[in-house]
Amino acid sequence: MKFKDFLISINSCREARDWVGDMDPETAWETSLRGDWMEWIIIECQPEVIAARAALNTAYATASAALNTALDTARAAYATALNTALDTARAAYATALDTARATALAAYATALDTALRHGPQHGPHRPRHGPRHGPRHGQRRLR
């Protein structure tokens, strides 16, 4: 019996039978890109293909375990990289903040020292009115 005839006998879909053509079961199995077809024939032929179903389940379990291991490794690497980046950013921020505070305090100390040594008459806000400069705008001179 040809494999295509066997597929007809177990009521496979027309698309699968057309695809198989004159292939033998081994060639069809090795070249099939349709996992759903492969799983279907395993289920349909359960008494004859128990070993293949067990192999498929083992392959699924192995692939799932490999995926979970890879995902765990990737998550751990991501967490390490993220924490390293955050620690570096926090350290750079703290250094920049300390530098800015120190610079601001030094500038304030210099300005305060200058103001205390020279007094307010040397500052930019020295009044330009008073007895030497005449009355303010809108005021009359007293006689």
Write the layout of secondary structure elements.
Blueprint: H1 3-9, H2 14-20, H3 25-31, H4 35-44, H5 50-118
Helix pairs in contact: 1-2
Number of strands: 0
Cα shape: rod-shaped
Q: Rg to the nearest angstrom?
A: 44 Å
Low-confidence stretches: none
Count of DSSP helices? 5
State the end-to-end CA separation.
136 Å
DSSP strand (E) fraction? under 5%
What structural category characterises the helix and strand content? mainly alpha
Order of helices and strands: HHHHH
Oligomer: single chain
Structure description:
With 143 residues, the protein is mainly α. It has helices spanning 3-9, 14-20, 25-31, 35-44, 50-118. Helix 1 runs antiparallel to helix 2 (14-20). 1% of the residues are buried. The model has no long low-confidence stretch (mean pLDDT 84).
Q: What's this entry about, in short?
A:
This protein has helices at residues 3-9, 14-20, 25-31, 35-44, 50-118.
Q: What are the salient characteristics of this protein?
A:
about 70% helix
